[in-house]
Write a structure and sequence with these properties.
Elements lengths: L1 H4 L5 H25 L21 H24 L3 H19 L9 H10 L5 H28 L28 H44 L1
Helix pairs in contact: 2-5, 3-4, 3-6
Length: 227
């Protein structure tokens, strides 16, 4: 959803990716139940997330939306970032504190498909909790991240990006500004112009002298014939 609202890729491409992610989460959940021994499956029921004691639905949906917003925004930053630190390490390391924060509120899940797949195997959510907290929250956070990132690019709030600012923010932004000539550049241009003018003048004088000499020779030869 963040990629769609940030203008990256096509709707068909993202639709195919969403369907494949949904299929992948269910296949992964049932494959884990089949291949991992039962003694190691004690934590599986908690993978779908769940509201902690004292956490209301409103606080839960706010927590999921906020954490997903931060994760998606950092992901969009990593896609367009110039350096390897912003492009790889920042989104990778940021998931650790986000998970630690969400553990005290919603689990966390941070992915509606993960919550859906594991909740279908180990039901822990009420319908209201599942669809509001673990679906509406992450989707709202992802959409807000995509819109916020587009606005940040448009107003130049993301200086370490490879993407150029959009020209729709100002009607005159598409016109190129002419460089202001410096004093040194102006002096050099004047010197070049004077050199060209002098060379043209000298060439004109030399041509006149050649014509005069030729006419003198012709007149001298005519006078000799007359004599």
């Amino acid at each position: 959803m963040a990629l769609i609202w940030s203008g990256k890729g096509s709707i068909i491409e993202h639709s195919v990716r969403i369907v494949l992610q949904l299929i992948g989460t269910f296949l992964g959940s049932y494959a884990a139940l089949f291949f991992i021994p039962v003694p190691y499956q004690s934590k599986f029921p908690f993978l779908s997330g769940g509201l902690k004691d004292g956490v209301s639905i409103h606080l839960g949906v706010g927590c999921e939306a906020f954490l997903v917003f931060l994760m998606c925004y950092l992901f969009l930053v990593s896609v367009d970032a110039k350096g390897k630190f912003y492009g790889f390490y920042v989104p990778l390391l940021a998931t650790i504190p986000f998970t630690l924060i969400g553990m005290n509120f919603t689990g966390p899940s941070l992915n509606p498909f993960v919550s859906l797949s594991w909740n279908s195997v180990f039901p822990r959510h009420t319908p209201e909790e599942h669809w509001i907290v673990y679906w509406m929250g992450p989707i709202a956070g992802a959409i807000f991240a995509g819109i916020s990132y587009v606005l940040a690019l448009r107003f130049g709030l993301f200086p370490f990006s490879n993407r150029k600012r959009t020209s729709s923010s100002s009607p005159t932004s598409s016109t190129k500004k002419k460089p202001v000539p410096t004093a040194a550049a102006t002096a050099s241009e004047r010197k070049k112009a004077m050199t060209v003018t002098m060379s043209r003048a000298s060439s004109t004088v030399s041509e006149k002298q050649k014509k005069k000499a030729a006419s003198t020779k012709v007149s001298g030869a005519g006078s000799k014939k007359t004599n």
